[in-house]
Amino acid sequence: MSDGLFKLNTQNFSSLCPNGTEWIWVGLGECTQDARDMASVILGLLSIVCFMVSSIPQYYSSCKTGNMDSALSIWFLLFWLAGDSCNLVGSFLADQLPLQIYTAVYYVIADLLMLSMYLYYKLKNKRARRRDGALLNTVSLLCLLGISSSILSFSHSAQDDMMPTMFKGRALLAIEETNSSVQPFTTKEIIGFTIGSVSSVLYLCSRLPQIFKNFQRKSTEGVSFFLFALVILGNTTYGISVLVKNPERGQGETSYMVHHLPWLIGSLGTLSLDLVISLQFLMYSKSSQPSKDTDEETAALLQN
User: Fold this and answer.
1) How far apart are CA 209 and CA 77, in angstroms?
2) Which residues contact 113 (CB under 8 A, 6 or more apart)?
């Protein structure tokens, strides 16, 4: 199957993507014929790297402090997972860029791992009162790992099925050439656009519970600053990669922007809320420093 797909990709490359980069065409399904297309691919790959490593600092912080369940809001994780799930489904249905689909697949897997760690520490911290905590931890981890493996296999098979048609849709030498302001949506694209719009709303809503939880605690202890810093960088590069990409031949800039609008809002729109969380790190880290100094002075006086 993979050998046949590779041959199909190579045969289509010379006719559908002249002057393009072959390894990008074969591996990513992107036709890069100029600097804009190449910049879009590079920024898209950079965003994937940012999102891949963004969760690592939070994993480390959670393992070190063991208070992930009290530091992160469960609604923040659930809204984030729901938004990424809608983003994945909408990207497939709306025929988004291949890099957007690859990134969406990783989003869901990373969210499931983050949620599994949350449940693990939630149950672990209650183990003193519950004798069956270890069994529940094992069951929850197995269920989440099973869901993540199912999504991974689904995305892989769906990507294989849609790849030949994607090459045809992404070809820059399309026969039809229209300059209408906004191309009409197909029924499949309308469904994908709607689900993508829901995902952008969920992304925006996901930050609010965490902002409220930080405000309520007057602390960001247990939350990794680098998680949000790398997410900000990843969303920025992701949004720019979509913006700099050349529209398909016959598709105007306006039509291209409209068709990708939910995903642009979902990535660039959350930047403002992520910046609010970053400001909370600065505010609460400064406010906690004097209290620590006061505690040290009080201890010194008591010793004297």
Assistant:
1) 9
2) 55, 144, 148
Residues in contact with 96: Cβ distance below 8 Å, sequence separation at least 6, in sequence order: 90, 192, 260, 263
Name the burial class of residue 296, with classes exposed (0-12), middle (13-18) and buried (19+) by CB atoms within 10 angstroms of its CB.
Answer: exposed
CA angle 172, 175, 181 (to 5 degrees): 75
CA distances from 252 to 185, 246, 259 (A): 14, 9, 11
CB 261 within 8 A of CB 182: no
Degrees, nearest 5: CA angle 148-154-155: 90
- Output the pLDDT for position 132: 46
Rounded to two decimals, what is the model's pTM?
A: 0.69
Cβ 270 vs Cβ 207: under 8 Å: yes
Mean pLDDT computed over 230-251: 86
Q: Specify the range with the lowest mean pLDDT, choosing from 24-28, 80-84, 251-255, 290-294.
A: 290-294
